[in-house]
Amino acid sequence: MHPIGSRFATLLLAVVAVVAGTVAPADAGEQDDRQGRSQDNRRAWTGTWATAPSEHFDVSGMSEVTVRMPVRTSVGGSSVRIRLTNAYATEPVTIGHATVGLRDSGSSVAHPYGLRFGGKREVTVPAGGEAVSDPVRLAVPALADLVVSLYLPGRVTHITDHWWAQQTVYWTDYGAGDHAADTAGDAYTWTTTSWPFLSGVDVTAPRTGSVVALGDSITDGSFSTPDTNQRWPDLLSARLNACLPGAGVLNAGITSNRITAGTTTNPSALDRLERDVLSQPGARTLLLFEGINDLGGASAEQIIAGMTEIADRAHRRGMRVVAATITPYKDFTWGGWSEETEARRQRVNAFVRDSGGVFDDYADFDKAVRDPADPRRLGAAYDSGDHLHPNDAGMKAFADSVDLTALGLGRGCS
Asked: How many other CB atoms sit within 10 Å of the CB of residue 190?
């Protein structure tokens, strides 16, 4: 097993302890970017996919590798760009070649487009920094699989990524070199389930904007079926993009995230609000679904104060804020539930349902998945098995419970 593979296996065990478009060959896409600029001036950059960096780790022996990452679009658009992050690294990382294209199947790509950064093929992302590619003309469909490939030349010592992504990500062997422009996936010989260095994909789309889902492991899709895009923000995107002209849905969930406290690589919702929500291209609505991880160490008043500050900051940036109630978790496999934490949950949920104008609206996720016979428990039909994380049916129940008109994005939504 590759060193990075064993690292992912260890992390997977650790988590439970905490609770078809116009195409062109690679490097040709940037040449036609000027053709559609007048049309795109009537549009705006909108996030179609995003993830929040959630860990950083050292690697040894990694060099001359290419990683290929499938991501699921929400809104479609006529041009595309990617955003890269090196948020938690202590050294810069160099991307020698990057491509984007529509997925064929598995690790194969129909026609990869070459990406440039300030007109150059190579970009070095500084420690703690980020990079945004130049736009490429590509008709990106809504609700499609897009693939981003990054070639990492030389020695790689640090990786910033979003782990446990519920998505297979493909790697070449160490020393295999640049395979970013390959259409076939034969060079990609091993897999992980995290998105390294990639933090977002944006498209030029009609000025509808996006909704950002700020949450924890439930929003991140933990325990939903891998490689099927059954996270509740994905399912919400399917509903929202059935409306015209559609809208972006961006997932800013991080496993074990809290409102009132955080760590270096898992900052609190308050501390990461600017990075993961307010600075997202085209962000117009925040859907806040946090708090379950705070119940064991913070008072209801502290959680409510944190929610209120988040809403106030988003409102000052002109965003709508929809909050979701905290879901039940009595008998959670790994503990943490008590009558005291349940009382806190009920107090927070009462505030979410009647916030006195703090929120523009709310989504009652609690009501959508609780057991009618014992509202302190997750309903059996929605339980993944640990009595806290919902299964695919639970994810759908969340998405279906959101009043699309409350989001203020798509026209003709119901």
From this structure: 14
